[in-house]
Design a protein that fits this description.
By secondary structure, this protein is α/β, with parallel strands linked by helices. It is built from 6 helices and 14 strands.
């Protein structure tokens, strides 16, 4: 699905991953669920590209619903996978701390887990090799993605700012659709390691200049990072 010049999404509002498409190749941001592999191949065919055009995959954090086809892309296509050092162990199969259970409604929760099952989310292969990145790094990949550390959802959660796409990819630093309640709108993401730290980290996101804010779950936000940060904080204050 094309969102804008250079910018494509695979998946949907339940779980999404993104492609930055340039003349120099493609950068993938997040890898959704294992079953999104076929969506990736279909999107590449639709734009007249192939796996050989993918230069790198940047993972916003090490949770399984962002790692789906990452190891397959790395092992079968030789694509390097970039992960913040704070989440490298998690992405390679390390333990994830238990988090407070979020509010749930039956239909949205069933929809989330049902979609995950259809996309083979019950068995996500961990990465066996990663390239670690740090805050401020500008990667030698199509679009020159810049890493912005946003700890809170996990220690190594990041935003990925790609100026050529006028976009910033935020993983689970925030959401526009709560996966277990189905509630739409800008809000904190559930299953967050440290909710207070996650909210504090949004100060850094608000400083970014971009026309798109792209979460791992929910509708793409076509507007400024500062505005969505304000909306998330207002929602958190009401909760």
């Amino acid at each position: 699905m094309k969102l804008d010049n250079h910018l494509h999404r695979i998946g949907n509002d339940i779980v999404a991953a993104y492609l930055v498409v340039t003349d120099d190749g493609i950068t993938v941001v997040d890898a959704g669920l294992p079953g999104h592999w076929n969506d990736l191949l279909a999107e590449l065919v639709a734009i007249g590209r192939g796996l050989a055009d993918i230069r790198g995959l940047v993972v916003t954090h090490g949770d399984s619903d962002h790692l789906g086809f990452a190891e397959r892309l790395r092992s079968e296509a030789g694509v390097p996978v970039f992960v913040h050092s704070g989440d490298a162990a998690r992405a390679m199969g390390g333990d994830k701390p238990k988090t407070e259970m979020p509010k749930m409604r039956l239909a949205p929760t069933a929809g989330f887990f049902g979609y995950s099952l259809r996309k083979r989310g019950w068995r996500v292969p961990p990465l066996t090799a990663v390239t670690e990145v740090a805050d401020g790094d500008v990667l030698d990949l199509p679009g020159a993605p810049r890493i912005i550390s946003l700890p809170g959802h996990s220690p190594g959660s990041i935003a990925v700012h790609v100026p050529v796409a006028d976009a910033v990819f935020v993983g689970d630093a925030l959401t526009t659709r709560h996966v277990t309640t189905g509630r739409a709108g800008a809000q904190p993401a559930p299953f967050t390691d440290d909710p207070a730290e996650a909210l504090a980290s949004l100060d850094r996101l608000a400083e970014v200049s971009a026309a798109w804010v792209l979460p791992g779950h929910g509708t793409p936000w076509h507007g400024s990072p500062a505005d969505i940060v304000a909306a998330v904080r207002a929602d958190a204050a009401r909760a």
